[in-house]
């Protein structure tokens, strides 16, 4: 067990405090292609596709089949150039640097016709000394090489042995050899868009100083981008410390003396340190102790407390009249990953303690929000991350096939209390370990840790996605005699390099080498475990599309499930924007083209058919919309069953398995408008699954299921104290809006943070007790209430497939919409019991308070929270309601 007591602050994140003036190169540049036939203005930060689109030279790259049509863009070379006059006298400064916080990806950089160097890793920052070449008026060129061609050449040059996979499966429509280039990988994965974009990205926020631009200084430069803080508690005194690390570039040949004053007014802390910077000194480390007499309010994950942070100022007063001040927010929290033996179960636990409290991680996996990162606005991040906490999640895993997200992402996670499981960007592939590749990775890892470690939201680093398991089961079919080489390379990259850097740079959170992994067991087995997906150790990833997802027995009773999922189609209003009439059927070329997962569309259909009737309505558009609706119903119901199984498995060991402490489904968000595992559509609209998540991740949850003909209800609590709880179980017939019978249990104590059986009854007894019920004619609903006014959502249990349900009739659901302040109230009235009632307002941004529910009472009110200004009449016009029998 490791105890890390560390305060963290999001200081830098960002930007740089410089001694001298700086000049930003954000703005309009010129973009031209390889042979010069195209020349157009392009924004920095920005992307070639966006520049072409804005000029009207291409259509929306996401429209219909444009991802294929515009493949030429990523096969061409592109040059970004600009001429600029520096508005200050650079000669007054001893040193001038050109800064790029990220260049995507392979570019030669020419400054006033002098080659400064090249870039080949989009995940790291670059900085060039231009003191000797800078003038008043300057020209700058970034000559991008086609990333596709570069990757291919790198792969060809690696002659010793092949490093698979060479190309992704055909249906993924991705580019080859992406493991040879440090560039976003999602583009060759199941989201594979042939839309590799050369662009100038920026991680930090510009408000702190230019992320693309010029910095000048004499004496020294404080590089705030690598100003970070970590604290460690003295084990004996258990005092909070703040460890501050500032990086400098000292030009002066004489030592630069001075003082640093660190103040955290709210914690009555103010300390001054004498420092002396030596030439070329890199870092200054300071340790600020918080007195034990001061109560430090901690940062807590969502649902477990507040996200308190404290303002801290760091003031450097250096000889020569140089004052540099930074104000940042510092947070205090600890993380432990607990791997210890469990009574009655072989193996080890795998769960997180935050501030000493064991916490069940509930959430999902995050992928890049757009192929074109310049379309990811702060508003979009806000919508997506608010939706995370609105659905009662507390965790996101930033998946290793995407990107290290921008600072704003982690800042929002800090503020909202979202824990982040951060992968390094390696996924589903073997990687080369040639010297220059490894050097580049080392720079990337060091850069990202320094950039990100001040964020309390990040609770774990993970070396890669699925590469341990890929080697163990030999996904890429390498010759068994060669396996040893690949094993060795694996250890070289993730253990001898990445792990080594993480352990030396960041002691404030745990590191695991892969996901899924067996944690310390993997380590003991030489880093590639015999069964990395074991239910007895570490985390697992689990997918099974062919078996019946209503049967919870197929799911792994594992310690932690960090990936699992089912696909569905996004709503028609989302698809409509990127398709035309001939695309609107489930078997269209478009439907097939957008499906990047092997047999995905058929798998959805087969899973739907297990429990639902296929659409009967004949109008082709109606039928397509009904299919979309049914795939969403299926996905929501499947993931509900699976998640509830994990949620209720936390406190028990059955046949040696259990103690599940994490459920992160695949996946939260979408990168474009296509069928996928996401619960949020491209742009942020909630699918039915997301509304289900809001219920199945509720802090107080009743879970119903059957085992050998007995109906059970478990209570699951993420609350911080014990509550006296009552369970109400009702039986309803499909044919009537009046419940048939109801039982209320006597109150039992629901323990904080635990799951326990509250109710069990053989199904035949239950049916008999409620005279006249059969499995086909009735449905069970149940909820929890406490002695104070805390309620669970109402849950339900189907006793038969919906396609066999008897007594269901077409429900006539009518609505009255009214405005109440910033919200809208939808008063619904139904003529009959209606399963999976789906309210839809098309493209009007916003979400409902609940949706996709079983309507079992005549009336129900639902709120609509708009994300943009809208009106009652706009909502009325866009509104449609669908329930299951509408598709009959
Ligand atoms: C792009 O540049 C590479 C190397 O500089 C060259 O081999 C290739 O032909 C160029 N492609 C185009 C389309 O100009
Ligand atoms: C220049 O490149 C573009 C894009 O690759 C291509 O369409 C065009 O034919 C080329 N023109 C010449 C003169 O080679
Ligand atoms: C710029 O600074 C240098 C060095 O201090 C000085 O010699 C020069 O005159 C200045 N140029 C202008 C235009 O002020
Ligand atoms: C750069 O070099 C080219 C040719 O080598 C020349 O025509 C051009 O004037 C030079 N530009 C500058 C800014 O020196
Ligand atoms: C603090 O305690 C942990 C666990 O007991 C131990 O691993 C670590 O070495 C200790 N640190 C110091 C500085 O004593
Ligand atoms: C902390 O700093 C922020 C931004 O500088 C400021 O708006 C806020 O008022 C400060 N809070 C306190 C308690 O001083
Ligand atoms: C290829 O093999 C040689 C000899 O074993 C080795 O020196 C070299 O580093 C290898 N190159 C790569 C790219 O692995
Ligand atoms: C496996 O071995 C065979 C025969 O030695 C060879 O032809 C083939 O290229 C090897 N495959 C890989 C992926 O290295
Ligand atoms: C549905 O109910 C409304 C209001 O009760 C009624 O006006 C309407 O005719 C009904 N529609 C159908 C198809 O029965």
From TrEMBL:
The alphabetized UniProt keywords are: Glycoprotein, Glycosidase, Hydrolase, Signal
Tell me which Pfam families the record gives. Glyco_hydro_2_N2, Ig_mannosidase, Mannosidase_ig
Give the Beta-mannosidase Ig-fold domain ranges. 808-887
Reactions catalysed, semicolon-separated, are: Hydrolysis of terminal, non-reducing beta-D-mannose residues in beta-D-mannosides
The signal peptide annotation in the UniProt record is 1-19
According to the entry, every stretch annotated as the Mannosidase Ig/CBM-like domain falls at 711-804
The Beta-mannosidase-like galactose-binding domain, residue ranges? 29-185
User: Which InterPro entries does UniProt cross-reference here?
Assistant: Beta-gal/glucu_dom_sf (IPR036156), Beta-mannosidase-like_N2 (IPR054593), Beta-mannosidase_GH2 (IPR050887), Beta-mannosidase_Ig (IPR041625), Galactose-bd-like_sf (IPR008979), GH (IPR017853), Ig-like_fold (IPR013783), Mannosidase_ig (IPR041447)
Query: Which EC numbers does the record give?
Result: 3.2.1.25
The pathway entry for this protein reads as: Glycan metabolism; N-glycan degradation
Tell me the protein family, please: Belongs to the glycosyl hydrolase 2 family.
| Record's protein name | beta-mannosidase
Q: Which organism is it from?
A: Microtus ochrogaster
Query: Lineage of the native species?
Result: Eukaryota, Metazoa, Chordata, Craniata, Vertebrata
This protein's gene is called: Manba
């Amino acid at each position: 067990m490791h105890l890390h007591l560390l305060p963290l602050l999001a200081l830098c994140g960002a930007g740089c405090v410089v001694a001298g003036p700086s000049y930003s190169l954000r703005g309009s540049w010129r973009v031209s292609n390889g042979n010069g036939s195209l020349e157009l203005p392009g924004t920095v930060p920005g992307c070639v596709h966006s520049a072409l689109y804005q000029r009207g030279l291409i259509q929306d790259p996401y429209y219909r089949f444009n991802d294929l049509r515009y493949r030429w863009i990523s096969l061409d070379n592109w040059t970004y150039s600009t001429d600029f006059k520096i508005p200050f006298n650079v000669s007054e400064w001893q040193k001038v640097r050109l800064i790029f916080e990220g260049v995507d990806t392979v570019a030669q950089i020419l400054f006033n016709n002098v080659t400064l160097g090249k870039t080949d890793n989009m995940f790291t920052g670059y900085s060039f000394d231009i003191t000797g070449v800078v003038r008043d008026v300057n020209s700058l060129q970034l000559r991008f090489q086609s990333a596709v061609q570069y990757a291919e050449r790198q792969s060809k040059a690696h002659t010793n042995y092949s490093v698979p996979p060479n190309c992704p499966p055909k249906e993924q429509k991705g580019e080859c050899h992406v493991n040879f280039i440090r560039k976003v990988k999602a583009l060759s994965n199941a989201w594979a868009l042939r839309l590799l974009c050369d662009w100038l990205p920026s991680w930090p926020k510009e408000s702190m100083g230019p992320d693309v631009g010029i910095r000048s200084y004499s004496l020294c430069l404080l590089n705030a981008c690598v100003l970070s803080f970590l604290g460690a508690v003295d084990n004996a005194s258990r005092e909070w410390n703040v460890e501050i690390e500032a990086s400098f570039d000292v030009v002066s040949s004489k030592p630069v003396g001075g003082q640093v004053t660190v103040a955290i007014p709210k914690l009555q802390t103010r300390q001054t340190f004498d420092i002396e910077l030596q030439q070329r000194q890199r870092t200054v480390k300071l340790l600020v102790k918080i007195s034990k007499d001061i109560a430090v309010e901690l940062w807590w994950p969502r649902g477990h407390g507040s996200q308190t942070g404290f303002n801290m100022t760091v003031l450097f007063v250096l000889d020569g009249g140089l004052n540099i001040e930074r104000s940042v927010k510092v947070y205090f929290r600890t993380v432990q990953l607990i791997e210890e033996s469990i009574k009655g179960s072989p193996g080890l636990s795998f769960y997180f303690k935050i501030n000493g409290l064991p916490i069940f991680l509930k959430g999902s996996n995050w992928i890049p929000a757009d192929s074109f990162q310049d379309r990811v606005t702060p508003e979009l991040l806000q919508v997506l991350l608010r939706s995370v906490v609105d659905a009662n999640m507390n965790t996101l895993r930033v998946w290793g096939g995407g990107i290290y997200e921008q600072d704003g992402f982690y800042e929002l996670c800090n503020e909202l209390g979202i824990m982040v499981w951060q992968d390094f960007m390696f996924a589903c592939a073997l990687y080369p370990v040639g010297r220059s590749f490894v050097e580049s990775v080392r720079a990337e890892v060091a850069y990202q840790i320094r950039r990100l470690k001040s964020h309390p939201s990040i609770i774990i680093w993970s070396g890669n996605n699925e590469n341990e398991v890929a080697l163990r089961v030999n996904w890429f079919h390498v010759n068994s005699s060669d396996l040893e080489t690949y094993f060795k390379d694996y250890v070289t990259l993730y253990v001898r390099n990445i792990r080594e850097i993480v352990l030396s740079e960041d002691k404030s959170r745990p590191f695991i080498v892969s996901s899924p992994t067996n944690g310390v067991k993997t380590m003991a087995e030489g880093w590639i475990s015999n069964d990395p997906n074991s239910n007895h150790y570490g985390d697992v990833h689990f997918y099974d599309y062919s078996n019946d997802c209503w049967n919870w027995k197929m799911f792994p009773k594992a310690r932690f499930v960090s990936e699992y999922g089912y696909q569905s189609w996004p709503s028609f209003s989302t698809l409509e924007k990127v398709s035309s009439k001939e695309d609107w059927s489930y078997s269209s070329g478009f439907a097939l083209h957008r499906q990047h997962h092997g047999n995905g569309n058929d798998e959805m259909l087969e899973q739907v058919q297990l429990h639902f009737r296929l659409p009967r309505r004949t109008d082709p558009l109606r039928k397509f919309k009904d299919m979309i609706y049914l795939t969403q119903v299926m996905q929501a119901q499947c993931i509900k069953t699976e998640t509830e199984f994990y949620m209720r498995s936390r406190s028990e060991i059955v046949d040696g398995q259990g103690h599940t402490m994490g459920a992160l489904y695949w996946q939260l968000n979408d990168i474009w408008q296509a069928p996928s595992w996401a619960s949020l559509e491209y742009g942020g609209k909630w699918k039915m699954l997301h509304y289900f998540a809001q219920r199945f991740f509720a802090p107080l949850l009743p879970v119903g299921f059957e085992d050998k003909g007995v109906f059970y209800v478990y209570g699951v609590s993420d609350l911080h104290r014990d509550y006296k709880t009552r369970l109400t179980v009702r039986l309803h017939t499909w044919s009537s809006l009046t419940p048939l019978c109801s039982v209320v249990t006597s109150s039992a104590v629901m323990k904080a943070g635990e799951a326990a059986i509250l109710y069990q009854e053989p199904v035949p007894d239950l049916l008999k007790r409620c005279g006249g019920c059969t499995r086909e004619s009735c449905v069970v609903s149940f909820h929890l209430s406490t002695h104070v006014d805390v309620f669970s959502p109402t849950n339900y249990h189907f006793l038969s497939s919906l396609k066999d349900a008897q007594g269901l009739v077409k429900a006539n659901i009518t609505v009255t919409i009214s405005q109440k302040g910033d919200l809208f109230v939808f008063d619904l009235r139904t003529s009959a019991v209606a399963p999976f009632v789906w309210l839809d307002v098309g493209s009007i941004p916003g979400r409902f308070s609940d949706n996709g529910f079983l309507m079992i009472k005549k009336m129900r009110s639902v709120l609509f929270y708009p994300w943009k200004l809208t009106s009652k009449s706009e909502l009325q016009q866009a509104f449609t309601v669908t329930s299951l029998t509408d598709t009959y």
